[in-house]
Amino acid sequence: MSPVADPLVAPVEDNLAAFHRVLTTLPWVTVERHADVTAFRSGLPHPFFNGVFGARFAPGTEPERAAATMAPFLEQGLPFLWWCGPSTWSEALDSALAGLGMHREDAPGMHVPLTGGVPDAPPVPGLEIALDATADPTAGAGDVARVMCEGFEFPDELAWAIRDVIALDPAHVVNAMATLDGEQVACGTLWVTGRTAGLYNIATLPAARGRGIGYAVTAAMMREGRDRGCRESILHASPMGLPVYRRLGFVEVCRMPQYVWVPDH
Length: 265
Description:
about 260 residues; alpha+beta
């Protein structure tokens, strides 16, 4: 669990960390666990599938430990993400990663209680939202992966890997699929840890944006989390989604620094 004491911040960090721990169980991922950091590599040429998390380096060792952790990624030319949260970020680590050529991109960590209910989504004619557990990774999860690839502009050839990721733990993962007049147009993933409903992968295809579909998908997953006993919901907002999440009652409670390295072609 996160050492962060703030009851609104800790679930933002803990939910993501739990997802990363499960992700490292994928058979096509190589994992290196150390006392002060965990790194995973898939060999796939996209930073989403290679990463570092949970770094808690002893003060004064940040440059040396960061360089050693990055070395396998650099040797293999693998793009990767270094994930941080309030308990794993420091100015010394930030300086070390910047000096090693990593680019920082922060995301707002957002939180909303579910005990007061979930706002109703304005009706969208022709819109239907299905929430299904991912027990069959070749069915619903495959469709969600395809829509996610298109919505986030991931290469189509990575859809199989995304499918595996979002079908990792059917007991705690629920995928949302939105159809508009029968056409699949948006998706999302709910990741439940204890009383926390983590919302991820919320994407709407470009042609369907601006109609309230992302709002409706987010609200549907919030209600599903509440029905599963969750008392709070968290997410890490993109600039595009931020206004939507604020309208649903989410407030920023922390920053989630992310550092990316991509080979210079």
